[in-house]
Every structure is written in C-alpha cells, then in structure tokens.
Design brief:
single chain; alpha/beta; Rossmann fold; Transcription Regulator spoIIAA; 3 domains; nine-stranded mixed β-sheet; about 35% helix; about 15% strand
Length: about 650
C-alpha cells in the first residue's frame, strides 16, 4: 500500500516564472498553452502531454487559460522555449464547451474553477496560436488536442455555419498532432534532440503539416502510398464534393496501414501522415504510470472546485479507443478504432493511489473508458485487421474476427474490489448493451455475457444502469451504425430477469437522440410510442449536435451520405428540431394538442392511441400491462437527489 504523500508546489508542472525559478531553471524547453485549468490527472490531455515531455528529460511549463483580453502578458511571461510552443483548446472542443446544441452560450465551463465561464475563447487553439505567432514568429508552434485533431482537414463548423479549412491554416501553426499524442511526440522530441530542425519534420506519423510546393518538394515516404482528396476550394464550391472526401478520411484514419492524405488548401498542400499503430500495453501503461498528483494546481485552491475534475476524481480509465464507429461520435476519429488497454497491474496500481488519497471514502466513481465494456478486445487474427477498412467492428454485425470476451473485464472488476479500501467500484461509463445480447453477439459465450451483466448489475451500479440505444427506427439506427432496437428489447429481458432474480430494484436508463440525420417526425413518434409501451417516461434527452469529423455532420451540412453520395435529409430548422424533441415529452400537457394534430395530419392514429389514448377501457388495459413491468420507469438522466423506488402494481392501477 502507498502512503499518502503531502504534495509540494514542485510536484506540479510550473505555471509561473516563480515556479520555474523554484526549480532552478533558466530556460524552458517546451511551453504549453491550454484552454482548461491545469489539473494534473491522466484524464486531462494537457497534463498527459506535459508529463510525457517531462519524462523525456525536458523542462516543461504549462500556461492554463491564458488571458486573451488584456495586454497578453500571459503569452510572454515565460519567454521563449528552446524547442517549441504547444497549444490546445482543452479536453473538449471549445465550441462544445462554450455553446449548447441550440447555439446558446453555456452558463458554466466544466473545466474552469467554480464552473466560471469566459476563461476560454471560442476557437481557442487558433486564438492562442495566432497570438504566439505574432509575438514569437521564429519559434516552432505545435497544436494538438481534440479541437485540432478533429479539425485537421476541411470541415463543417456548426457554430459559424461555415466550411472551414484545416486548422493549420487558421492557426498559422507549424505542425498538428492528431489523436493521442504520446507516440508522435516521442519521435518529434527524439529528432529535435538530435539537432534535426523543426522545419524538416514533415513525415512523422500522426502529424499534419502544410507545404508550399512552389518553395519545396513534397517529402517522400517510401513505405506508404499517397491519396489526394478534393481541394478545400472545390469543397467550398460543391457540397457533394465535400461529402465525398469523408469516406477516404475516415477509412484512412482507422486503418493500421494507412495512406498519406494530400489536400490543396489556398495555394499550399496539406499533408496528413498515417497514424501510428495502436499503443501497446507497455506504452499505454507508461503514460498512465507517470507521476501525476491527480489534483488541480494549488493556484485554484481559493477559486472553487473544477466540475470536470470532481466528476472523475475517483475514477480509473482502463482503455482508449472505440470500435463502435457511431456516425455521430468523434471517439474513433481521435482515439482510434482499435482498443489500447492497460494491464491489470497498471490499473491496480492507480486504484491503490486513489484509495490512499486523503478524502477517498471507499467509492470509485468509474472503472471504464469510451465504451466501458471494450477492455482487452481485439482481432483474433491480426493480419485480417491489418487489411480492414470498415469504420466499425460491430456494425452492421459483429465481426467474426473480433474477440468479444468479457472475462478479462470481469476479472479486472473483481481484482479492483479486493482492495481493502475499496467499498464499491461503479461503472459510470456507457456500456454497449448490444454486445451483451447473444442474439447479436454470436461470437461470445452466452453464459459469459450473463456473468458480466450480473457482475455489473449486482456490484457496480448505483440504482441505475445507463445504456444508449439512441433511437428506435431501424433506418435511422442503420445510418447511426447502431443495431436494431430489437436487441434493446432482448437486453431488457435479460436485465429484468437478473433484476427479479437478485431482487435488485435497479432502473434501466436508455439514452436517445433527436433530430439525427434520416430521423423524421414519424420516427420520433414511433420512438415515443415504443418506449412508452415499454414503461419508460423519458425526461432528459439529447439533440443531435454536429461536430467535425463525423458522418452525421457531413450529412447535416452537405445533404449527402459520404459513403453512398445519396441525398439524405436532416432536420435543420429550429422548428423541425423542436418538433422532434416534443415527442420525448408526450406526457406534458403543453405538448398534447400539438401531438394530436400532428399525428392526425400524417394519418398515424395508431401512434396517437398509444401516446394519448382516449378509450378508457383500452387505456386501463395498457396501464395493467405496464404494471407488470416494475423496473422500467425511466428517471431523468441528470437527476441526483430524488430517490428512485420500485412502484407496486397496486399503486399503478390507482
């Protein structure tokens, strides 16, 4: 067991000149600028990059949330770094941090002390980079993080409603690192330490650069091919042309042996080098085993808690990547399709560190990842994966080459729970329920799936298990790259069986999206009717938000599916989005007249009879049917205070 350590100021990366001097440093090698407050934790990208660079023997400082509204002294206070500046907008795209799906400015910023807003500018990476290039034009500038990663090529920006070029153009940066940065940074630093000029670093994997072909030749990469996509200017002229680019971009991003992507942009050529192979267990362990304090910098002690940190303070991330490939999700575009899993030893070492934190009460909030139950899953025959171009390993069906065994994860949960100071470990990350259904996951042993499901339900859930079927319409789900809603019904049957058998009184909480491409009003009416018929009353849901680097966003902007180039409609107007959303709340008085009018207009009295039945005897029978389903009344997703209790059949009949 580790002993609780009392931290010193020098346990964090320096953020001020005073902190640099305390360490006895005269000059810094790298200075990082971040849109987030500095939390020295492996779930916060800027901290990970800082610690990685530190592990290479570099003197690194971080300037969190520099002020862009004063004399810009935050950008000059630490002087020039010896090697380069690094910029990131933070752990979330700043536009997602700053605005809601309806483009209203958010009241809180989860990555700022006290949730205060106004400390992160819109398009933060470009704002910071332009300031640094203006003040230090001769110092190399490298950008990374999710904002840079997802904007590395011509992309649609929902908040400005414009097609924008690569962020390398708007930021004036010298290089972009996409995805998780440990591997490319290792190579960049190694070459710089050998004396290779930064300007010569054109062909490092998982980076992108702009090349002026009038002034220099394109660098040659002997072991990979090139593929040229439509220029930024061509994309501006024709939406279908823009859409056709995305199939190439997505496939090459998810291939183990990818081609280099070339795109002409305003007289220069964008080079997007292929990604590195998936991190090995040793590599990802090395990243998580660095000497993080796991705490916010002491400078925030009097400013209030940082909401994003409080949420993950006692959580453990066990893997990266997601092979789901959902059309609306950016995880695979940033973290990759293939899973990089930590060793059980590394996870348990972090559990021990968390368990010995002074304010740990015995409860781990999450043992998970992007999708909680993909730990240690990979291809059975690697050579098959090497040739694969599919964006998803589980859509439309689960690949026969995918090992979907949940046993390593079940074993990990049980090992974590053996720690003497852990009273309970929760699974707060979303679980892919479809992978727990034998009818869908035909590769797996049904008994093993039930063992995992029962392990989660009996030991790792606090009242509610959240899953994400996302929709009930098969055409919409197909476009989403999600399985038929039939499999949610089958999962629910297994959930209910365990719930009754073990007398758990758990609630199943399904998440849904409205206004997704291909979703029509009738689809939403079907969703409302089917979930009501199952006993759910949905109170909080999500509206589709277009973010760069997803199939759904390309469809939203262009009107074409990038893989088929067939026209595909998306609800885009404010009224269309509001109308779709209303069906989630069919039970609210203010929506009932509108629902009646709408469903009568489209001739769907069958759905109207389910949502707002007027026949009293029929209604009584439906209530009696719902009474049998004692476990499925959905609670609001974000409700914390109200206790969820089982409702008896007798009370329901009243």
């Amino acid at each position: 067991m580790q002993e609780t350590k009392k931290h010193q100021l020098t346990d964090w990366l320096p953020t001020t000149n005073r902190e640099v001097k305390i360490r006895g440093w005269e000059q810094l090698d790298v200075i990082l600028f971040s849109g987030d407050a500095y939390v020295d934790h492996p779930s916060f990208g800027p901290a990970v990059i800082g610690r990685i660079l530190e592990s290479y023997g570099l003197r690194v400082a971080i300037v969190p949330q520099p002020n862009v509204n004063d004399n810009l002294q935050d950008f000059e206070k630490l002087g020039k770094p010896r090697l380069f500046f690094g910029c990131t907008g933070g752990c979330m795209d700043p536009m997602v941090s700053n605005y809601t799906a309806s483009k209203k400015r958010r009241d809180k910023d989860a990555y700022t002390p006290n949730g205060d807003k106004g400390f992160r500018p819109d398009y933060a990476t470009s704002v910071y980079s332009n300031i640094l290039k203006d003040k230090f034009p001769d110092v190399p500038l490298l950008i990374g993080g999710i904002e840079a990663s997802l904007r590395r090529v011509t992309h649609y920006d929902y908040w400005s409603d414009e097609l924008m070029p690569t962020i390398l153009e708007t930021s004036k940066a010298d290089m972009l690192v996409y995805g998780m940065g440990e591997q490319p940074l290792r190579e960049i630093v190694t070459l710089l330490q050998k004396g290779v000029p930064f300007s010569s670093l054109k062909n490092i994997k998982q980076t992108a650069v702009l090349v002026d072909q009038k002034a220099e030749k394109l660098p040659v990469i002997n072991d990979c091919e090139d593929i040229t996509i439509n220029s930024h200017e061509a994309c501006l002229k024709d939406k279908k042309t823009f859409a056709s680019n995305f199939k190439v971009i997505e496939q090459e991003s998810n291939k183990l042996k990818a081609r280099r992507i070339l795109q002409d942009v305003k007289g220069r050529t964008l080079l997007i080098n292929p990604p590195f192979p998936t991190m090995t267990e040793k590599e990802i362990d090395g990243s998580f085993d660095l000497p993080y304090t796991r705490l916010p910098h002491p400078k925030y002690d009097k400013r209030g808690p940082i909401p994003a940190f409080e949420m993950i303070k006692f959580s453990i991330n066990i893997h990266r990547g997601c092979f789901g490939g959902c059309s609306f999700c950016t995880i695979s575009a940033h973290q990759g399709k293939f899973i990089a899993s930590r060793s059980q030893e590394s996870v348990l070492k972090e559990v021990d560190k968390v368990a010995n934190m002074p304010d740990f009460k015995g409860y781990l909030s999450d043992i998970g990842g992007p999708s909680a139950n993909m730990y240690q899953m990979k291809g059975k025959v690697q050579s098959i994966c090497d040739k694969c171009v599919a964006p998803s390993c589980i859509s439309p069906v689960i690949c026969s080459n995918l090992d979907t065994s949940h046993k390593p994860l079940t074993d990990l949960y049980q090992a974590v729970d053996k720690h003497s100071k852990v009273k309970k470990s929760f699974i707060g990350s979303g679980i892919r329920h479809d992978m727990l259904v034998p009818e869908f996951n035909k590769n797996a042993d049904p008994k093993e799936l039930d063992t995992y499901t029962e392990e989660v339900m009996t030991k790792h859930v606090s009242g509610r298990l959240k899953v994400a079927p996302e929709h009930t319409s098969d055409p919409v789900l197909k476009l989403m790259r999600k399985p038929s809603f039939t499999y949610f019904h089958k999962f629910k049957e297994r959930f209910d069986k365990i719930n009754i058998k073990r007398k758990l009184n758990l609630q199943l909480i399904p998440y849904f999206i409205s206004s997704h491409p291909a979703s029509e009003v009738e689809d939403m009416a079907n969703l409302a009717a089917e979930t009501k018929d199952m006993g759910f009353q949905l109170e909080q849901v999500q509206g589709f938000t277009p973010t760069p680097m997803t199939v759904a966003t390309v469809i939203y902007y262009s009107g074409y599916h990038p893989y088929t180039l067939k026209p595909t409609r998306t609800p885009k107007t404010k009224k269309e989005k509001e109308d779709q959303h209303k069906f989630f709340f069919w039970y609210k008085k203010e929506n009932k007249d509108w629902i009646k009018k709408t469903l009568n207009k489209v001739g769907r009295q069958d759905l109207l009879n389910v949502l707002l039945p007027e026949n009293k005897s029929w209604q009584k029978n439906k209530k009696a049917k719902a009474a049998k389903n004692t476990f499925d009344d959905a609670v609001p997703f974000n409700r914390r205070k109200k206790k969820v209790t089982r409702t008896s059949s007798k009370k329901r009949r009243r």
